[in-house]
Amino acid sequence: MTERETEIEDDPGTPDTNVLSFRPPGRPLNVTEIEAEYVLMRDRLKAEEAKKAAAERLKAAKEGRDPNPVRSMDLTPEIARRVCEKSGTHLLKLVSPRADGDHAILSISEPGSNRRKPMIPSVNAADIPFAKVLYRPLEIIGSPTRSLVDHLLNPDDLSDRVCDAFAAVFGAEVLEAASQALSGAPKPVTKLAAGEFPIIFLPDPNGGDIQVTPVSPATAFMGMKSVISPFFKKQEKGGPKVPRGRFHKQSVSAQIQNISGAIGGQRVRLLAEMPAGLERAEAELHRYVRGGSFPRWREAEVDVWVLRYAEMLAADGTYNDRNTRAALDRTADRLIRDADRFVVETVEDARDLAKNLSIAPDELAEPPGAGTVLLRRRWESDDAFQRARRALSSAHFEYRLLQRRETKEG
Question: Domain span at residue 135?
Fold first, then answer.
């Protein structure tokens, strides 16, 4: 995903009112206007301070007391450092809201990459306005839409201009505090935060097990919305089939802002059920195409005819004539012919399936002979299996197999 595809969210607003925002407010800027934009953000912070001070004075007058001081809305180095230190690539509260604050934010770098992953702040409510300054996307004409934090994490040709404009408005000390907090190496993970987390145990090559807790990047929260939306579209009559599968949304937190002010909407989990199992014949065909055993021939009464052939073969040893020998030959030939037909049809289906799965049909394993196809089934008893095995490996059956091969080759 690109940085804009994983942009952090905020409540929508108009270009005039949404100066402090976690999402692009729709205010395209020239490079020369960056400093003026930060002036607007600073003025908006001071306007909020003045508004709270006026409300406190009004309240104090009604209560007949001196007004209490309100919090200054100056963006100081301490605040900038705190916001950046409370930012990360993985927010454990998205997995469990009970994760404690000291171990709820992780910043994980991608091995082998020279770029830092996008971060999301997880600060208290009082610091959200300041986080909106540091994370406010700047829509500079001719350049990617990026925030000050983006420029500090992954500088480009425009980063110096953005940093200079920010420092001119909020002070070089504030810029330096943010830069230092973001430039440090990610803190090592030494403790699993308290909460309900999934745990997976994997075998350790050196013996024992490795305990693993999967945690998704915070940007996956926003990306998931675009991924799952097609599954919940209405099916239009005559339109392409909506790929629903069996998916369900489960709302687990209605106050996502308590996790990060940069994330809007409910925290939603996507519950996916396993698709319906294949029919037995389809499942066996898939296994064969992927290197498994050849599918079983499950046609009804085949075992009855095999055992009847075994009885006729045993009787042939004590008495036979032209008619009984002809009947024995016909029975063996019928079993062989039907088994061969099953093999041919199954191989054709397997080759078609292999093409659909991008598997070379020539890589399919050699199909078994008729005797093996007839014997591979569930028998009512071991005695029945043994009688069938002896009959299908008899000299008579082998001779009829040879006769059929010679007839097909001729």
Answer: 1-187
